[in-house]
Write a structure and sequence with these properties.
The protein has 238 residues and is α/β, with parallel strands linked by helices. It has six helices and ten strands. It has two domains: 110 residues, 3-Layer(aba) Sandwich (Cobalt-precorrin-4 Transmethylase, domain 1), CATH 3.40.1010; 119 residues, 2-Layer Sandwich (Methyltransferase, Cobalt-precorrin-4 Transmethylase, Domain 2). The structure holds S-adenosylmethionine.
């Protein structure tokens, strides 16, 4: 009895790993969140599918409830797949689920996925590091759990590239924080629905990006690597 924590990648079904497809094909049960692309579930023909993601206007499962479902199914079936967008350990709460399963004596195997944080910019020709331009990057949440007693996000990052996930709802507030440490001219790129048919790319500067009309799911990439992307685009490689 194994529960596989599997990353489904950022949306394009061709960005799913061979290992992910192998475990989906033999799955008895697949427990999944809202995925950028549900086509991936077709690999699990015959498996019991359990949706535990959010739906507008409907009560969604708490993390404790999801953990209980995982434990229950993990005790009952040989092959359980817990499928998550991107990589399960990048803002996916995969670590919490793994701990809950291990504490209940259930074997866990992790199948990493292409995280949207790096994979999505990569597909448009935006490198998160670039020789002579950026030697470091940080990936941060733009939306912390409001029940936390104190914010854990300190915006004074020293990294050359800042990649914000879940950053659209609080874009204006987050930009105000980053502007305390970065120049308003710092280039910014926002990628909506990365790797999907509705993909949209918006560029600007830190000082004006909050005025642009952008919709989730989207990534916000801040730093001089965005100029490298513009250079790639103008060179006709994208
Ligand atoms: C809860 S986090 C999960 C991240 C995921 N585990 C990963 O590694 O990509 C969801 C956020 O990831 C980003 N995201 C995921 N897929 C995306 C996509 N296809 N295009 C743009 N952003 C995406 C968005 O910022 C979204 O709000």
């Amino acid at each position: 009895m194994v529960v596989y924590l599997v990353g489904a990648g950022p949306g394009d079904p061709e960005l799913v790993t061979i290992k992910a497809i192998k475990v989906l094909k033999k799955a008895d049960v697949v427990i999944y969140d809202r995925l950028a692309n549900e086509k991936i579930l077709e690999e699990a023909a015959g498996a019991k599918l359990i949706y535990v993601g959010k739906k507008a206007g409907v009560h969604h499962k708490t993390q404790d409830e999801i953990n209980q479902i995982l434990i229950h199914e993990g005790q009952k079936y040989d092959t359980v797949v817990r499928l998550k967008g991107g990589d399960p350990f990048v803002f996916g709460r995969g670590g919490e689920e793994m701990l809950a399963l291990l504490e209940n004596g259930i074997e866990v195997e992790v199948v990493p996925g292409v995280t949207s944080a790096i994979g999505v910019p990569g597909t448009i020709g935006l490198p998160v590091t670039h020789r002579g331009v950026a030697t470091s990057f940080t990936v941060v949440t733009g939306h912390e759990d409001p029940t936390k007693a104190e914010s854990q996000v300190k915006w004074d990052f020293n990294a050359d590239t800042i990649i914000v996930l879940m950053g659209i709802g609080n874009l204006e507030e987050n930009v105000q924080e980053i502007l305390k440490y970065k120049d308003p001219e710092t280039p910014v790129c926002i990628i909506e629905n990365g790797t999907m048919p509705g993909q949209r790319i918006v560029t600007g500067a830190l000082g004006d990006i909050a005025q642009k009309n952008v919709q989730p799911p989207a990534l916000v990439i801040i730093g001089p690597v965005v100029d490298v992307y513009n250079q790639m685009k103008n060179s006709g490689s994208n």
